[in-house]
Amino acid sequence: MTGIAICPGSFDPVTYGHLDIIKRGAKIFDHVIVAVLHNSGKQPLFTVEERVELLKETTKDIPNVTVDFFEGLLIDYVRKKNVGVVLRGLRAISDYEYELQIASLNKNLDDNIETCFMMTNNKYSFLSSSMVKEVAKYHSSVTDLVPDHVEAALKEKFRTPQA
Fold this sequence. Notes:
Blueprint: E1 4-9, H1 16-28, E2 31-38, H2 48-59, E3 65-71, H3 74-81, E4 85-90, H4 93-109, E5 114-119, H5 129-137, H6 148-157
Pathway: Cofactor biosynthesis; coenzyme A biosynthesis; CoA from (R)-pantothenate: step 4/5
Pfam families: CTP_transf_like
Keywords: ATP-binding, Coenzyme A biosynthesis, Cytoplasm, Magnesium, Nucleotide-binding, Nucleotidyltransferase, Transferase
C-alpha cells in the first residue's frame, strides 16, 4: 500500500498500544497523520494541546508521521485532508464490533474512504488509555504501558487534585 492514512483517536493518553499501530502503519503507508479528536462532550484528562504534544514527542523518530487534531465528524476531517484511508487499531472482538459500526457509517457517508483495521500486538491487547489513567491515578507504575514522558505527564496530572 502507498498513500496517506489517518489514524484517529482520543489518545488520552497515548499508550504503547497506540504507538504499535502508528509505527506499523508508518511501514505500510507513505505517510500517517495521527489525528487527536477534540470532543467537547467529554472531559479528558489531557487537553487537546497536551495530547498533541505528547504524541509529537512519542512519534518524533518516525519521519513519515505527523500529528494534528480535529473536532466534529472524522469523515469531514478525512475529506478536508483529501485522504482515502482511515487506520484503526483493534485489540479484541469487542473493538471490532464497535469499529465495524463506525467504519460502516463512514462508508455510508463517503464511499471513497476505506477503513484499514490492524490488530495490535498481543502484548498490548489488554491496554487502554482508561486503564492507564486508572493505574496512574493511584500512583502505580505505568512504565510498561506508556513512554517515559507520558508517564511523567500522568504523574504531574495526578500529583495535584483534579477539579
